[in-house]
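FAQ

Q: What does a record look like?
A: Structure on top, sequence underneath. For example:
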């Protein structure tokens, strides 16, 4: 990562296949490496006392959202330097730590560990399936952009509203919608790399990571609601 030109967004399809394949390989490698701080963060998160959330769940969630958005902007601002990689790993560590409350809740179920495993496996299956479709077909899924952006905004707004309402049925609908939206983003992001629309490894990794992260969360929430077993 020595020059901005190396990461400048090219005209769609202008890059040679070898360069595009290199970008894809490096993105997948970095994506795999982000799992290390994510797992480390989640291990710490499981053992963290999040009692402050019980006192002010809405404020705590909004503050954490602001922190993660801030880190994402920092990653974007430093994407052409080694600082971008470091901040990306910091972001994934914090994201893993923030899984703590959800994982603690899941482990209260008799089959919580099993459902966490199912959610992780489901996330992996969805990712590899959709990434393979985008890679093998080389189809440009850019046409999904506006639809996915609209869906993302609706999911975020609905989630914020449900922080106040806390209606289980709405939570299920949001989780199901989020699975569809973030699955679509996987197609969209991998397609951009394959077709030369994204050459920055850091930003490509961040985009796919966010889709996987939210997909995992949505799957856990859906599985717990539908299959969770309590005493």
């Amino acid at each position: 990562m020595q020059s901005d030109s190396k990461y400048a967004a090219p005209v769609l399809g202008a890059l040679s296949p070898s360069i595009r394949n290199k970008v894809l390989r490096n993105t997948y490698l970095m994506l795999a490496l982000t799992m290390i701080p994510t797992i480390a963060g989640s291990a710490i998160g499981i053992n963290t006392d999040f009692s402050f959330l019980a006192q002010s769940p809405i404020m705590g969630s909004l503050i954490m959202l602001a922190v993660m958005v801030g880190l994402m902007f920092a990653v974007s601002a430093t994407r052409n330097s080694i600082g971008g990689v470091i901040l990306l790993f910091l972001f994934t560590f914090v994201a893993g730590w923030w899984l703590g409350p959800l994982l603690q809740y899941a482990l209260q179920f008799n089959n919580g560990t099993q459902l966490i495993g199912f959610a992780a496996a489901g996330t992996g299956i969805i990712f590899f399936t959709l990434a393979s479709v985008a890679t093998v077909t080389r189809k440009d899924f850019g046409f999904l952009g506006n639809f996915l952006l609209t869906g993302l905004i609706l999911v975020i707004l609905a989630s914020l509203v449900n922080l106040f309402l806390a209606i289980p049925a709405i939570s299920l609908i949001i989780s199901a919608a989020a699975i569809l939206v973030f699955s679509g983003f996987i197609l969209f992001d991998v397609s951009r790399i394959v077709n030369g629309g994204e050459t920055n490894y850091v930003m490509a990794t961040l985009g796919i990571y966010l889709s996987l992260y939210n997909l995992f969360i949505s799957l856990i929430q859906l599985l717990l609601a539908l299959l969770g077993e309590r005493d």
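Q: Is there anything notable about this one?
A: Residues 17-46 form the longest helix (30 residues).
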